[in-house]
UniProtKB/TrEMBL annotation:
Residue stretches making up the JmjC domain: 1-104
Alphabetized PROSITE patterns for the sequence: JMJC
Protein name: tRNA wybutosine-synthesizing protein 5 isoform X5
PANTHER family noted in UniProt: HYPOXIA-INDUCIBLE FACTOR 1 ALPHA INHIBITOR-RELATED (PTHR12461), TRNA WYBUTOSINE-SYNTHESIZING PROTEIN 5 (PTHR12461:SF104)
A biological process from GO: wybutosine biosynthetic process
GO molecular function ontology, one term from the record: tRNA binding
Highest taxon of source: Eukaryota
Length: 152
């Protein structure tokens, strides 16, 4: 969900990454495997250096808008209080009714991920060379049908 991060007291450093850089963030579920974004292990995560960082510092009274789908890393630089205000902008039927804090993917995205998991399990029945070929073909199909044609 979209989010306002309101810094009431203290200081925080916030680093944002565009959803378009997801391929460089080494995602496992909704989290990045790269824990130290200031000094990443580039031998283990070589593509991380391609992700574009947007960084800012928040002090008491500052408000930061964090758009839906943007990955963010928040580091408290001193003790403080921050308040997040989230809001839903998709139709209500898109959200899981049990998701109070907006941490779950929209229902359609969750269903698509489950279908993909089943497709990958089915591909696992093929020999490696065939599995590789058909998986690459699926990726191309997804890119062609689902990726935004708009560039930044």
């Amino acid at each position: 969900m979209d989010n306002f991060l309101i810094q009431v007291t203290g200081k925080k450093r916030v680093v944002l990454f565009s959803p378009r850089d997801a391929q460089y963030l080494y995602l496992k579920g909704t989290k990045s495997e790269v824990l130290n974004i200031d000094n990443p292990d580039l031998a283990k995560y070589p593509l991380f250096s391609k992700a574009r960082r947007y960084e800012c510092s928040l002090e008491a009274g500052d408000v930061l808008f964090i758009p839906a789908l943007w990955f963010h890393n928040v580091i408290s630089e001193e003790f403080g209080v921050g308040v997040n205000i989230f809001w839903k902008h998709l139709p209500s039927e898109c959200y899981d009714k049990t998701d109070t804090y907006g941490n779950k993917d929209p229902k359609a995205a969750s269903r698509a991920a489950q279908i993909l998991d089943r497709a990958l399990k089915t591909l696992a029945e093929l020999p490696e060379e065939y599995r590789d070929f058909y998986a690459r073909r699926m990726v191309i199909h997804i890119q062609d049908k689902a990726y935004s044609k708009n560039s930044e």
